[in-house]
Write a structure and sequence with these properties.
The protein is of the alpha+beta class. The protein is 47% helix and 19% strand. The protein has ten helices and twelve strands. The strands form three sheets. A four-stranded antiparallel beta sheet has the order 1-7-8-9. It has a four-stranded antiparallel beta sheet with strand order 3-2-12-11, with helices on one face. A four-stranded antiparallel beta sheet has the order 4-10-5-6, sandwiched between helices. Helix 3 crosses helix 4. The longest helix has 36 residues. The chain starts with 8 loop residues before the first strand and ends in a 5-residue tail after the last helix.
């Protein structure tokens, strides 16, 4: 038929309310991982938290979880962004979506049209040829929501990015090591195995119980220790939170790299929800049928709600600057430390005893 053309609208599955939204680089991976049947298995056995005195991050005791951390369940392929035209870029993104591959691209995040580029990653999971837009999550009022980004914006941003990289040649290296590649396709691995996830989840709970205060330092050319700092892991992150609250209550000046109390408390809450998920996953996979275990899991959920309350109090503090809000949180933190540790230790003991008695039938 003359004038007829095929119009395609396609979206890949996406989870906008992912388990972690406090870190955009982490969210981009979890928004994909949580669409799979192995989402709970992977989350239960991954994602630890550490605090470097004033900021919290998902990672090991001293650094973020880097991109390779996710490659047990995701396949991430780099695409050469330097040899693409604007039109080729649009076509390539759509081809990858058609092949069930998400696109993570470092591009201009500024949609205001004021002409000032603000570079950031964007996760593209769909397109609409009728509207000439891609679909991507963007953060609005502390939540990720579906946003339509025009083909034109993505195309026009490419030469701006290339020019930016020419002027800032270190950018690509730093991004690729810590966060993501400039342009990559991401898909779910077909060979992912969850067989060890319950064991890794159990280790994760043990690591939470045995939270550490880690003193770090570097050696200079004379073998002298320099750049000393202290990080906290596991439940010991609460100790760092308390020290931060005390500094804020005392009106001490904080470093300019301090991200804020609300973001720390958001991550502390997200981490506890993941620990709670780990507990449930172990109970389910090991088929534990003991009322005492169910009570412990339920009690830990109450503790998760407590950290959510702290987060909401911190949001209120941002608005009213009432120091009594900080004092109330600070009062509860030592109590939370003791109660959480006791419940997790009991969970550890009960699960260990259950496993010892039933190890032959656990699959």
């Amino acid at each position: 038929m003359k004038g007829w053309r095929l119009v395609v609208v396609k979206k890949l599955p996406i989870v906008l309310d992912a388990a972690i939204i406090s870190e955009c680089w982490t969210f981009a991976k979890l928004a994909i991982i949580q669409t799979t049947e192995y989402a709970d298995a992977w989350l239960a056995s991954h994602m630890n938290l550490y605090v470097n005195m004033i900021n919290a991050y998902f990672g090991d005791y001293q650094s973020f979880h880097d991109p390779i951390y996710y490659e047990d369940i995701l396949t991430i392929h780099e695409i050469d962004i330097f040899n693409l035209s604007e039109n080729q870029l649009t076509k390539l993104i759509k081809q990858n979506i058609d092949n069930q591959k998400y696109i993570l691209i470092y591009t201009d995040w500024n949609f205001t049209g004021d002409g000032v580029p603000r570079f950031h990653e964007i996760l593209i999971y769909g397109y609409n040829d009728i509207k000439q837009v891609f679909y991507a999550p963007t953060l609005t009022n502390r939540k990720f929501t579906e946003t339509e980004i025009s083909y034109k914006h993505i195309k026009d941003s490419l030469p701006v990015l290339i020019n930016h990289l020419k002027l800032n040649k270190w950018t690509r290296l730093g991004l690729s090591i810590t966060y993501q590649l400039l342009l990559s396709s991401i898909s779910i691995r077909e060979d992912y195995s969850p067989d060890r996830c319950a064991y890794t989840a159990f280790k994760k709970i043990k690591d939470e119980i045995n939270g550490k205060q880690v003193k770090l330092g570097e050696l200079n050319e004379n073998s002298d220790i320099c750049n000393e700092r202290i990080n906290y892991t596991g439940i010991s992150c609460l100790h760092s939170l308390l020290k931060l609250l005390q500094r804020m209550i005392n009106l001490e000046e904080l470093p300019n790299w301090y991200q804020g109390l609300t973001i720390m408390l958001k991550k502390i809450h997200e981490h506890r929800e993941l620990i709670h998920l780990s507990m449930n996953y172990i109970v389910d996979k090991w088929d534990i049928d003991k009322p005492e275990i169910f009570q412990l899991v339920a009690q830990y959920q109450i503790y998760c709600e407590r950290t959510k309350k702290w987060y909401l109090m911190a949001l209120k503090y941002e608005l009213v600057q009432n120091c009594s809000l900080l004092e109330r949180i600070a009062y509860e933190v030592p109590i939370a430390y003791k109660e959480e540790k006791a419940v997790l230790q009991s969970f550890d003991s009960f699960c260990t005893a259950w496993y010892s008695d039933n190890y032959e039938r656990i699959v």
